[in-house]
């Protein structure tokens, strides 16, 4: 989502701008998800097939790398960041590389 900022880098990634309203909506959505719901939805095969970043870890054995733990920790960090930005009325620039 968001507005394309038109600054594609050498790897083809583009930054996008989420408006303050979009950030609030995103924060509300993230706040509605529980870690139990994320755990229930965790589907390494599908995530790998869809190339969900970082797709190289999803099919690793749980004991080896704890991909589910990585996902839940990243989710917590994202929810905190987006929630804080929403509370401040800030927009957010997004670029995953």
Structure write-up:
The protein has helices spanning 20-32, 35-41, 44-49, 62-65, 67-88, and strands spanning 3-4, 16-18, 92-94. It has a three-stranded antiparallel β-sheet. The mean pLDDT is 84. The protein has 97 residues and is mainly alpha-helical. The protein has five helices and three strands. The two termini are 16 Å apart. Helix 1 (20-32) crosses helix 5 (67-88). It is flat, with a radius of gyration of 15 Å.
Quick tags:
single chain; 97 residues; mainly alpha; three-stranded antiparallel beta sheet; 5 helices; 3 strands; 54% helix; 8% strand; flat
Helix and strand string, N-terminal first?
EEHHHHHE
Looking at the structure, what is the overall shape?
flat
Low-confidence stretches: none
H/I helix tally: 5
Give the arrangement of secondary structure elements.
Blueprint: E1 3-4, E2 16-18, H1 20-32, H2 35-41, H3 44-49, H4 62-65, H5 67-88, E3 92-94
Antiparallel strand pairs: 1-2, 2-3
Summarize, please.
By secondary structure, the protein is mainly α.
């Amino acid at each position: 989502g968001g507005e394309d900022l038109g600054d594609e880098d050498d790897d083809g990634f583009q930054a996008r701008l989420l408006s303050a309203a979009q950030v609030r909506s995103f924060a509300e959505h993230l706040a509605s998800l529980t870690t139990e719901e994320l755990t229930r939805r965790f589907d390494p095969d599908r995530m790998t097939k869809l190339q969900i970043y970082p797709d190289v870890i999803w099919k690793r054995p749980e004991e080896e790398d704890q991909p589910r733990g990585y996902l839940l920790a990243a989710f917590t960090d994202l929810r905190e960041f987006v929630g804080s930005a929403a509370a401040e009325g800030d927009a957010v620039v997004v670029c995953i590389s």
